[in-house]
């Protein structure tokens, strides 16, 4: 698609870090080339949606990702652990 966007926020308090990110993509079209009875391409685009979803419009979408992390500091060799979930 022609339009994509990514945005995120980060918040830190004490040794905790919180992240929330979003990824958005606009609608897309999945055209195809038609074929004749011999299987040769006719160079005509298929723009009508097909029942199997192979051709037609693909709706836009937004995905959200979240992450939390903890910094143990020098007491534990600067160990940092994090846990994240994608596509909430």
Automatic annotation (TrEMBL):
Pfam families: TonB_dep_Rec_b-barrel (PF00593). Gene3D superfamilies: TonB-dependent receptor, beta-barrel domain (2.40.170.20). InterPro entries: Beta-barrel_TonB, Beta-barrel_TonB_sf, TonB-dep_rcpt-like. It comes from the Bacteria. It is a multi-pass membrane protein. Residues 2-88 form the TonB-dependent receptor-like beta-barrel domain. It is found in: Cell outer membrane. Keywords: Cell outer membrane, Membrane, Receptor, TonB box, Transmembrane, Transmembrane beta strand, Transport. One of its GO terms (cellular component) is cell outer membrane. This is TonB-dependent receptor. It comes from Pseudomonas aeruginosa.
């Amino acid at each position: 698609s022609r339009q994509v966007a990514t945005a995120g926020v980060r918040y830190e308090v004490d040794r905790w870090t919180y992240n929330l990110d979003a990824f958005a993509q606009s609608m897309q079209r999945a055209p195809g080339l038609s074929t004749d009875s011999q299987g040769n391409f006719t160079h005509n685009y298929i723009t009508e949606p097909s029942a199997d979803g192979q051709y037609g419009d693909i709706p836009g979408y937004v995905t959200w990702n979240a992450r939390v992390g903890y910094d143990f500091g020098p007491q534990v060799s600067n160990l940092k652990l994090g846990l994240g979930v994608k596509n909430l």
